[in-house]
Amino acid sequence: MFFLKANFRHAEFRQGFKEMGSVAPGIAAWGLMTGVAMVKSGMGTLDALFMAVTVFAGSSQLAATPLLMAGAPMWVILATAFCVNLRFVVFSAQLRPYVMHLPLWQRLVTGYFTADITYVMFVKRYPLPAQDAAGRAAQMAYMAGSGCLNWVSWIIPSVLGVVLANGVPPQWGLGFAGILALLGMTCALASSRLRWVAAAAAAVAGVATYGLPFKLNILVGIAAAVVLCMALEKRVLPAAAPGEGS
Amino acid sequence: MDALWQGHTGLWTLLTIAAMACITVISRSFFFISSKPWVLPQWVQRGLQYAPIAALAAVITPEIVMSHGTLTGTLQDARLYAAAAGVAYYFWRRGAGQAVLGTIVVGMAVYLPLHVGLGW
Questions:
Q1: Phi, psi torsion values for A9, nearest 5 degrees
Q2: Domain residues for A199?
Q3: ipTM, 2 decimals?
Q4: pLDDT digits (tens, 9 = 90+) for A161-205
Q5: Is there a single domain that holds both residue A159 and residue A225?
Q6: Which residues of A touch B84 (CB under 8 A)?
Q7: Maximum pairwise Cα distance, chain B
Q8: Which among A64, A82, A185 has the least Cβ separation from residue B56?
Q9: Which of A153, A169, A189 is the last residue of a domain?
């Protein structure tokens, strides 16, 4: 969390901030278009502003907006938001050993700020949890730095998008910059042959099961890639160490 | 202010949005909540190293090759060329720093003229 002195004074905070800097323009364009989309689907300005600054999860915002407009019951909207966010539940299982030394409120705040790109950058830099206090402090500072810039570069354009919704033509497709940012990160992660296989398997499964509700195709993609790569690992490189490459 | 401000707000809507923010917290810190000692089985931990790249690939591929829920099946699509140019730039400049930023900039430089100019 970037408001803790121990984090933002740490050198790893600047490192995380700097690395997030190269994807920030993509996040910003995406945030802008999410703000625009909320208003274009009929949301009131105040509602859209409130959603932009609190929910902090683009896909769940876009999934919930039409339901909200249609007057769906609250539990339906919340269940939808949770299902769309299921991939974060998987990420949290992986991140658990990195954060369990923190008190509960700090774990919850850390979780809140851990969006897709923050998670990906973090496990890329730190494939394994730290074993001592200094290492843990460095990891948390890195996460705080990247999370801080990610939050700022999402929230400010989202608010602008809501306010200026009628001045930004959605048909320009500026939001595609967000996809390009994630594409660049995908390339950065493709450091071994099995990771290429993982990407290909997830891409095919994600497209093939796109019709599933709640963006469950993302979970199917992750599951397909993990299962396939685990099977291949056993056959191809039985002695590979965990956390190889980064 | 008409152009900048629209709609009316209900307490119920604001309450629902606040609850959605709680859903963000709960889903992203799902396995952080209980502090009971518990470790992920070794094989799951091993498998999850493929989760980041798999999640990204599953998120972005449909956004590049599909529209309205089906494969686009045409080569007149700006996204294909933008993605190809972005990937090419990344592997050309990787290690030079800011390669991801270049992927975004080069990709958009290809995307915008094709998409806005030619309507692809």
A1: -90, -10
A2: 191-246
A3: 0.90
A4: 999 988 888 888 889 999 999 999 999 999 899 999 999 999 999
A5: no
A6: none
A7: 58
A8: A185
A9: A189
